[in-house]
Amino acid sequence: MAWLSTAALPLAFSLSVFTTGDSTSSPRRSSLFFHQNYSTIPSKNGGLRIQCVRVGGVEIPNNKRVEYSLQHIHGIGRSRSRQILSDLCMVNKVTKDLTDGELIQLRDEVSKYMIEGDLKRFNRLAIERLKEIRCYRGIRHEMGLPCRGQRTKNNCRTLKGKYSLRQGREHQEVMVANI
Fold this sequence. Notes:
Keywords: Ribonucleoprotein, Ribosomal protein, Signal. By secondary structure, the protein is of the alpha+beta class. It contains 7 helices and 5 strands.
């Protein structure tokens, strides 16, 4: 194994292992010490801080209001997050200020909706079904073209990809060969 002369390996968000020594020294002679950054860690929790709350299998940010934090979950947008808060009669406060009881209520309410993996799987299966029955939308999905009636002469670069000049060059070579 190759040993680096100076390396920092994160053990936790607040701890790092630093290896010092020249590149020829063996790993036994290297000195290890732990470095802790006290400027970013509050001391009231013993140096550990919860940075995110886990709701619906997703870590939502701690420093934003609940309405905007919920929008980090795939399948929950602005209107659904507002609906969840109104159903729970919960005040839109910063996520880190939520109590344990409020978090449990929030998790239960979010679990009622189809989110993340289930939603992605549902959409993928719906598109596969369209491809199987060979309907217009399924064929457009297979060809990588828009399926909701947009024009394709000038736009839809997102689906078609970058411009390709291959067809034009091949056509020119065939024309030169025929002459």
